[in-house]
UniProtKB/TrEMBL annotation:
Domain spans labelled ZNFX1: 273-380
Lineage: Eukaryota, Metazoa, Spiralia, Gnathifera, Rotifera
Organism of origin: Rotaria magnacalcarata
Any Pfam family matching the protein: ZNFX1
Listed InterPro entries: ZNFX1
Top-level taxon of origin: Eukaryota
Name of this chain's protein: ZNFX1 domain-containing protein
Length: 486
């Protein structure tokens, strides 16, 4: 009866948002009884603060009960539990936990059973935290929690507890190894050491158009061969491979160089400048969207940090297809490659929708709780202009390359267009200057495309000499490369 009265009193006070006088242990019992108890807790921010910072939580029994509550709620609402667990770093709970993990010899015999349960649930909670927020391992390590748990596991005979602690320590060691490998700064300069005739290490048809993280952080040196400016290509594959890799590196290098600059300690402050990228700080992940185009992610851009003069209706910022590199820890352990899918609401509420462009990226990004703050680097080169060309280079068969005779075999003997071979008469009257004195000279007269002496001159056509030469080239050659001059 006492429990029922307490439960109803707690429920009534929760409905009235009057929780200041309620004990945390009673509140916890209430949430445990509710099917959506975790969701109810998350909705009350002041109450959440009490669970993470109140000195009443410095109680071994309540800590065990609270961590059990979170673990049991994961299968019902993983995303909601993530919102709570992600708050552990910086809260008092980790400090309280460390204090309770005293050396085994100093523990009261009556508490050892409870401490074994605590070691189990704490290890499981920290594993979940590292899954959500891998880079916080350093903060946990600095508190000494990993060492304390590891020492405790050697004193416990329960194999389940030993296994969970072992899994946690193994994950920490993996993150430490990754962190150590990332200490080396990525190189921003690429030197092409291979010659055009060298054999490629892999089939360019199988390469992803989007770069890998190893390529971005320069742990994998890109294979590049010089373009052939004198001489011939061996075959179609030789030509396509060289141009695909060079074009891909053309858009990848500026992004790599910008990340390299950003990762240097002197450039993480507000003064960071790089002409190859646009920087967006304090961007918030607000959630995921299931659309006809697939899984999209909504990002809230902090427009207050952008120039006020931006006109989004005309701006090239964050337009469809632009490539973004997103990180929540200054690229220490996270880097997501995204492309902009929709920015139609950016001038209304500051949100854009983006799409992941790497394998497993969707899954990894969905594990990050909404509210996480990101830094974005947007390449100024329009990635959507590169993408279809790179795809086309991969899709072209090596024996069906357009203009193969000229591009591969370097044949300089360019014939007249086929449509002029049988009949080469042409009427220039539509482009003659009507006011010229020679207009009547060509009125009713056809010129021979093959005989330049029968053509009107540049003045009669209203052209300068370079334009006249370009017109002759365009009409008399089956292939012509003409560049305009501003």
């Amino acid at each position: 009866m006492a429990f029922k009265r307490s439960f109803h009193t707690t429920s009534k006070n929760l409905k009235n948002n009057d929780t200041n006088n309620l004990k945390l242990v009673d509140l916890l019992k209430h949430f445990e009884q509710e099917r959506n108890g975790c969701e109810q807790l998350v909705e009350q921010s002041k109450l959440v603060d009490r669970f993470f910072f109140d000195s009443d939580m410095n109680n071994l029994s309540i800590l065990v009960q609270f961590f059990k509550f979170l673990l049991h709620s994961i299968h019902r609402s993983r995303q909601t539990v993530a919102k709570l667990v992600i708050r552990l770093p910086g809260s008092k709970l980790l400090d309280f936990s460390y204090a309770h993990l005293k050396p085994h010899s100093l523990i009261d015999e009556n508490q050892k059973d409870l401490l074994e349960k605590f070691v189990l649930v704490l290890s499981q909670i920290l594993q979940f935290l590292l899954e959500l927020h891998p880079q916080c391992w350093e903060q946990i390590d600095s508190l000494g929690l990993f060492d304390r748990l590891d020492k405790w596991s050697t004193k416990i005979s329960d194999e389940d507890v030993q296994l969970e602690v072992s899994k946690l320590i193994s994950r920490k060691d993996e993150l430490l190894k990754e962190h150590t490998s990332k200490i080396k700064k990525p190189k921003s300069e690429i030197e092409i050491k291979t010659e055009p005739d060298d054999q490629p290490p892999d089939d360019f048809h199988q390469l992803s158009i989007y770069p890998t993280l190893d390529e971005i952080f320069q742990q994998q040196t890109p294979y590049l061969r010089k373009n052939i400016t004198t001489g011939q290509y061996k075959n179609g594959t030789h030509y396509l491979d060289i141009h695909f890799r060079l074009l891909r590196e053309d858009f990848l290098w500026p992004l790599r160089e910008a990340i390299c600059q950003y990762m240097s300690e002197d450039n993480r402050d507000i003064s960071f400048r790089n002409s190859n990228v646009r920087l967006y700080r304090n961007t918030i992940l607000t959630g995921s969207i299931c659309s006809q185009a697939g899984i999209l992610f909504s990002l809230l851009i902090d427009v207050s940090m952008l120039p006020r003069s931006i006109s989004w209706s005309n701006s090239r910022r964050l337009i469809y297809g632009n490539l973004l590199a997103a990180t929540f820890d200054d690229f220490d352990s996270s880097c997501f490659l995204l492309t902009v899918e929709d920015r139609s609401n950016i001038d209304k509420n500051g949100t854009i929708n983006v799409r992941c462009q790497k394998a497993l990226c969707d899954y990894q990004l969905m594990k990050i709780p909404p509210g996480t703050r990101f830094t974005l680097l947007e390449t100024t080169s329009y990635f959507e202009a590169y993408r279809p060309i790179l795809q086309a280079l991969q899709n072209i068969k090596d024996d069906q390359i357009p203009l193969e005779k000229y591009l591969l075999q370097c044949d300089t003997n360019v014939p007249i267009p086929q449509y002029f071979e049988k009949k080469s008469d042409i009427d220039f009257r539509p482009i003659l200057v009507k006011t010229s004195g020679e207009y009547n000279e060509f009125n009713g007269t056809l010129s021979d495309i093959k005989d330049l002496s029968t053509w009107p001159n540049a003045q009669q056509l209203g052209l300068d000499q370079s334009q006249y030469t370009a017109l002759q080239l365009a009409l008399t050659k089956s292939v012509a490369l003409i560049q305009g001059i501003v």
